[in-house]
Amino acid sequence: MTNQRKLAVSILLKIENDNAYSNLTLASFFKDTDLNNEGKAFVSALVYGVLDRKITLDFVLSKFMKTPIKKTAPFTLCVLRTALYQIMFMDKVPESAAVNEAVKLIKKSKENRNAGFVNAVLRSVLRTENLIPQGESIKDLSLRFSAPEWIVESFVCDYGKETAIKLLEESLKFAPVTLRVNTLKTNTDELKEKLGTKSDDTVFLNSLILEKGFDLANNELYKQGLFHVQDLASQKAISVLCPKPNERVLDICAAPGGKTFTMAELMENNGEIIACDLYEHRVGLIDDGAKRLGINIIKPIVSDAEIFNEALGEFDVVLCDVPCSGLGVIRRKPDIKYKTENDFTELCEIQYKILCNAVKYLKSGGKILYSTCTLRRAENEDIVNRFLNEHNCFKKVTEKTLMPHIDKTDGFYYALLEKE
Q: At 203, which CATH number?
């Protein structure tokens, strides 16, 4: 039987050593395991929990270690992090079990000489209170909510400290699974009955919010194309854009295709959607998804969103969902927190260039939706305001920032612009 804690440590090592995506790494490891759903859920909770709280965990560990975190043996450090996460944040795991299992893992590893060290550090943690700072300085908030200081500063600068704290709190909470009902094949009531699971279908039209996740890849209803996974935030954005049957639509940054599919459903599979992405394998994801859902109006193509392609012609509607820093979806993708601010230095210019290029495809009287899954004003309002100042033939119809603690969605921004 697979040792769940050892598997979690192996996954975390792979993510850290190879800078790998957590969701893909988990899926890869789970293919070759005999764990049942409960075991997979525990491993997933441990992996994502450590990624969520790594800054906090390393701060606490450093108080009880003479060796700097960066110089600690990799396997030992991962074992310490997983054990500490269980002690501090997993109420159902006895503290003694977390410590004992950690020591056992080390004893059976190539780093077995560190067993006494691991035991001593974790026992010291158990004897200590007030492990996390409770102040409201940028540094204290960073340590308490396990977010790099640049993200904390960004939230505080854009929204004030009170809202920043609420955003940081939400970033550590469970992200619900939201299904978009494929209205081309079924309806909400039918899908809810077939799923046989508790869900909330009162929040937004043609969506189901599940109380817990499930094995998507092996779900027969998923394979039959009765739904796709899409958070309420992007569903609401697409409802504002509201493409209609027989219109010609451009999705200029489409992969992996969730918003594209929702637009096709709103169009009743009548009309045409050109769905673009820079990489062929991502275009393939759109094509596969469309086939699974029974959608035939989507034409996925490889195309650079920054370069105008005259051959594509004009469109009634353009979706411009640009690459972004992703600070609105940290609760789903904790890996984002370990990027640096320098990783995004050129991002705003890229976003602006894509928006300026996207509008070249729009007919007079047509609509374009600019959207991101981040909460940085520099990537949202500032981009749209700059665009409007330099493009007098456009007007802003509506604009919205969806906040996780208010709207119960991912963090998301959209602005609907119309060409006069």
A: 3.30.70.1170
Tell me, yes or no, whether 267 and 387 share the same domain: yes
Assess whether 251 and 317 both reside in one domain. yes
Domain membership of residue 132 (yes or no) is no
Same domain, 166 and 181: no
- Whether residue 276 lies in the annotated active site: no
List, for residues 207-240, the tens digit of each pLDDT value.
Answer: 999 877 677 777 899 999 999 999 999 999 999 9
Sign of CA dihedral 406, 408, 412, 415: negative
Distance (Å, whole) CA 228 – CA 184: 12
Residue with tokens 């007007």: 395
**What residues contact residue 252 under an 8 Å CB cut-off, 6+ apart?**
276, 303, 305, 318, 319, 320, 321, 354, 357, 358, 361
In this structure, the answer to whether residues 37 and 91 fall within a common structural domain is: yes
Residues 373-405: pLDDT tens digits? 999 999 999 999 999 999 999 999 999 999 999
Looking at residue 83, what is its pLDDT?
Answer: 97
Domain that holds residue 240: 233-419
Q: Are residues 50 and 199 in the same domain?
A: no
Please, which pLDDT band fits residue 80 given cuts at 50, 70 and 90? very high
Domain count across the chain: 4
Query: Do 276 and 148 share a structural domain?
Result: no
* Residue whose C-alpha is closest to residue 75's, from 117, 30, 40, 41: 117
Q: How far apart are CA 382 and CA 398, in angstroms?
A: 15
Taking alpha carbons only, the member of 61, 60, 45, 59 closest to residue 12 is 45
Residues 179 and 62 both lie in one domain:
no
Indicate the length of the chain as a whole number.
420
The kind and range of the H/E element at 63 are none
- Are 304 and 353 in the same domain? yes
Q: Which of 253, 320, 348, 373 is catalytic?
A: 373
- 138-191 pLDDT, tens digit per residue, is 999 999 999 999 999 999 999 999 999 999 999 999 888 999 999 999 999 999
